[in-house]
Design a protein that fits this description.
alpha+beta; 14 helices; 12 strands
Length: 341
């Protein structure tokens, strides 16, 4: 079944349009009303790592985060896709120490750190990456913490029928305003279950995340939103969109990207009301296709002022240079959200 998408990002070379990235966007309020969209607001796609704040939710709601004494920075790395920087690796190791499990309990696999500096430093030592460097190791440590706290098995914590995974899927369904059965389940790059749902439903979950974040008494969703906004460097890392965006508009935006061109955002508006945004780029290019769409969507919704846009300009539009350093083209967002209310 083909995606119902619109052209969102243009790639120009000289005076000709050379390429384009198509996608779909849904913007909803915390009550579920569709505020704006581009393409099919009900397009069904996997959230991939954009689901991480919600995969952490049962741990926080159960009180286990308090019982284990997890710090806010540790919770942020559980809700993030970290870059393998030393602070990220140390945080995941601390989580494992607190739940009494070795790093061999993590079933996320391994890869080189996303951080170029961290990867360079690792190569300089002659050491190979470990599971702790995997960008999803925080999420996996959080899932293991849920299992340990509930006295459940840990060897099969990634089984979609494991109680930890069932709890996660149930809460995501509730936040998205859909049924448990309406969420399709696949296998993510880190081997954890990943979830597909309509963009509109995912946007609603993010709107509720942002709404809770504006209420200081909320110890569940609210705490997750606040630790992400307070520790954006633990959610992604230096030179990455989620971190730079949350720094550019402090305490206003909760941002979590995912693989294959997916991005979820929760926005706290000046009037205290919340919006949720879900973006899917059809060709899966989350950088050249997705980053400009995220920034342009927030610009059109008046979330980013000129100062914030200046800080994020390298994610919004940029020149294409060739191997001699000559400017030969440009990448830029070019779409207009259709307002629904």
């Amino acid at each position: 079944m083909a995606f119902d998408t619109e052209a969102l990002v243009e790639v120009w070379r000289g005076g000709c349009l050379e390429s384009e990235h198509r996608g779909a966007i849904a913007v909803v309020d915390a009550g579920g009303a569709l505020i704006a969209h581009a393409g099919d607001a009900d397009l069904v796609s996997y959230l991939r790592s954009s689901a991480k704040p919600f995969q952490l939710l049962p741990l926080v709601e159960s009180g286990a985060a308090v019982r284990f004494g997890f710090t806010d920075a540790e919770l942020a790395v559980m809700a993030g896709s970290h870059a393998g920087e030393p602070r990220h690796v140390a945080a995941v190791q601390s989580i494992l120490n607190k739940i009494g499990l070795p790093d061999t309990a993590l079933q996320c696999g391994l890869h080189m750190p996303f951080s170029a500096d961290a990867a360079k430093a690792l190569r300089a030592t002659g050491r190979e990456p470990t599971v702790l460097h995997n960008n999803c190791s925080g999420k996996h440590a959080g899932m293991l913490a849920q299992a340990v706290d509930r006295g459940l098995s840990t060897h099969d914590y990634l089984d979609p029928q494991h109680p930890v995974q069932v709890s996660i899927r149930q809460r995501l369904a509730e936040l998205g305003g859909i049924t448990f059965a309406a969420i399709s389940v696949g296998v993510d790059g880190c081997s954890a279950p990943c979830f597909a749902m309509p963009l509109r439903a995912a946007a609603l979950a993010f709107a509720r995340l942002a709404e809770a974040g504006s209420k200081m008494h909320d110890a569940g969703l609210g705490r997750i939103a606040r630790v992400m906004m307070n520790y954006p460097e633990m959610v992604a890392g230096e030179g990455r969109l989620d971190t730079d965006l949350m720094r550019a508009v402090p305490q206003r935006v909760v941002s979590k990207g995912g693989a294959e061109g997916y991005h979820g955002l929760g926005v706290i508006q000046p009037n205290g009301l919340a919006l949720g945004i879900a973006v899917k780029i059809a060709d899966g290019d989350g950088k050249r296709g997705g980053n400009p769409v995220v920034i342009e969507t927030l610009r059109q919704l008046a979330v980013l002022d000129d100062t914030a846009l200046a800080k994020l300009k390298n994610y919004h539009t940029w020149k294409i240079t060739n191997h001699r350093g000559l400017e030969v083209g440009e990448v830029k967002a070019n779409f207009k959200l259709m307002r629904d209310v």
